Amino acid sequence: MLDPDDAEAVRVDGRTLSYRALAERVAIHLARLDALGVGAGERVGVFTHASLDVVAALVAQVTHGVVTVPLNPALGARELEHMLSDAAPAAVFVDGARRAELPVSPALAGRLHDMADSDVGSPSPAWAPRAVSNDVALILYTSGTTGAPKGAQLSSANLAANLDALALTWGWTASDTVVHGLPLFHVHGLVLGLLGALRVGGALHHVSRFTRTRSPPRWPRSRPVARCSSRCPPCTTA
């Protein structure tokens, strides 16, 4: 019988992590935060390029009490300056291979840090998974169509309530795999796709880009969870 820790947790464009491997990368990211002197309750930005390091950083922060500010890698300089000024993160992380794609931003000076696969030591004993609470877990920015983007503060209790209701409605279980294509700065891609799959103990296959010529993804487990639409609960309540 397969050890649950060896079951697939997340796949990003064909690269996979088991639950055990994801936990190891979470620990690496917590050690990165330690090295910068960043602790629980502080705000930390993450540019959400589609990579396993980014996934691990998001999971590490959300589950350990860091207030996470997901950042669209395609932001223009003006929007990025506004968000960094408004959220005032103590640090901002980027997948090192994609750093050159970011706009030049004075607001990033001194707080932009690369993520790397190499180990940086063990996290301090101060890090422990945080229970669901009313403390802010995510600051997600709106699109800014009616003015400057606004930071929507979501607690872990908000996230859990939406995901648990959805799991009940769909009959979503650990035997299911979600295939998702919305970006990780989006509430649907991050909360439903990534955090939802992990909360029920299932798997996420994140596809960074769909094309008409690309063959449809295979379903490695029992069934697709559901056909997603803009009327589903996370879109209408988060």
What topology, given as strand order, has the largest sheet?
Answer: 2-1-10-9
Instruction: Report the end-to-end length measured between terminal Cα atoms.
Output: 38 Å
Strand content: 15-25%
Count the beta strands. 10
Query: How large, in whole angstroms, is the Cα Rg?
Result: 17 Å
The average pLDDT value, as a whole number, equals: 87
Tally of individual helices: 6
Low-confidence stretches: 219-238
Structural class comes to alpha/beta
Shape: globular
Percentage of residues in helical conformation: 25-40%
Q: Report the sheet with the most strands, covering strand number, pairing sense and barrel closure.
A: 4 strands, mixed
Spell the H/E element sequence. Answer: EEHEHEHEEEEHEHEH
Describe the structure.
The protein is built from six helices and ten strands, in the order ββαβαβαββββαβαβα. Helix content is 31%, strand content 20%. It has a four-stranded mixed β-sheet. It has a four-stranded parallel β-sheet with strand order 4-3-5-6, with helices on both faces. Strands 7-8 form a two-stranded antiparallel sheet. The chain has 238 residues and is α/β, with parallel strands linked by helices. The termini are far apart. The model is unreliable at 219-238 (pLDDT under 50).
